[in-house]
Amino acid sequence: MEPILSKEEIADLLAAIRAGKVSTDFVENGQYRPRHIIHATDIDLFRTYERTRGSGEMRIPNLDIVIDNFARKFSTSLTNSLQRNLTVEREEITSTDFQQSLKNLNGQGAVGIYSIAPLKYGCLFHFDTLLAFTLLEIMLGSSLSSESLALDRNLTTIEISILKNTMTEICNELQNAFRPIIDLQAHLTKVENNFRLVSIVEPETEVLVTRFNLRLAGEICGQMQWVIPYLTLEPLREKFKALVTFTQAASPNWSRVFARETLEMESTVIARSGLINMSIRKILNLQPGDIIDLHYNPDQPLTVMVEDQPLFLAIPGERNGKKAFHVTGRHSNRLGGIHGST
Fold this sequence. Notes:
By secondary structure, the protein is an alpha+beta fold. It folds into 2 domains: 56-252, Chemotaxis protein chec (3-Layer(aba) Sandwich), CATH 3.40.1550; 269-286 and 297-330, no CATH class. The chain has 12 helices and 12 strands. The protein has helices at residues 7-18, 40-54, 56-59, 63-82, 98-103, 129-139, 157-178, 230-233, 237-241, 246-249, 252-262, 280-284, and strands spanning 25-28, 31-34, 86-97, 110-117, 123-127, 185-192, 206-216, 219-229, 269-272, 302-306, 309-319, 322-330. The strands form 3 sheets. It has a 6-stranded antiparallel beta sheet. Strands 9-10-11-12 form a 4-stranded antiparallel beta sheet, with no helix packed on it. The protein has a two-stranded antiparallel sheet with strand order 1-2. Strand 7 (206-216) and strand 8 (219-229) form a beta hairpin. Helix 4 (63-82) crosses helix 7 and helix 6 (129-139) crosses helix 7 (157-178). The longest helix is centred in the middle third of the chain and has 22 residues, at 157-178. It starts with 6 loop residues before the first helix and ends in a 12-residue tail after the last strand. 21% of the residues are buried.
């Protein structure tokens, strides 16, 4: 079996062919003949490989469901902790190598390094400069009207220490988002602003990169990126496949499930024989032997209350030695007020 060329080798070979350095023919018995004929199916397969290589969503099925769940939970966490209306929106999920993913960060902002036992390698969360300084301004008491500035400098040690609180919140939300897949133990091990000191895998290792936009009162206030090695998630591929999709979740089957389960719920039913208004003073003055007039007419039907709502009319009686009532119809005022019942 002939060896399979890598992506880089294919690119070098095509460049050499275009430059005329490599001939596409070879000599056999003094005659030139094509060594291999490239079919349309070969081109389609190569294009499919390229699309798969660049799309993290295609590498791990239903990964976007887990990430969207994390984004919603982290939005709530930030809003509660900072008392500002912050929204986390997922953008694209791409695939690249670890070294390139660090280069794309342009050496700005802060990187949190996380361990995610029992999975291998760990992962990174990056806050860009705009997001880092926006969060710092909020945590240090800036007003809503102040504009966030992405200062052209590295974060200081004190600023990184302040950001650790927000980066630590990611651990809990990451664990919650992954709970349908696996029980993670996420921990923030370090926060760095010198990206040359960041290393969780070999430089050429493939990683999945997810970008998030963060909005403050509707305006973008920075970007966050999540970098995780593909080999970390690949063993969970079958569990990701088993996740319910949004299309399935919205299917009519769920309506039938809810309807069926609702029929099994217990409710409180009361047959009310009378209704009176009584002040607190009169109630406190009641003594043993006092008689309370309910203005009850035995010839009139009872009102049947279901969860404090009048729904039916009934006639009182007895069955098998126990008190009972016979439903005769529906109540005309299903939203009537309740002041007291017996």
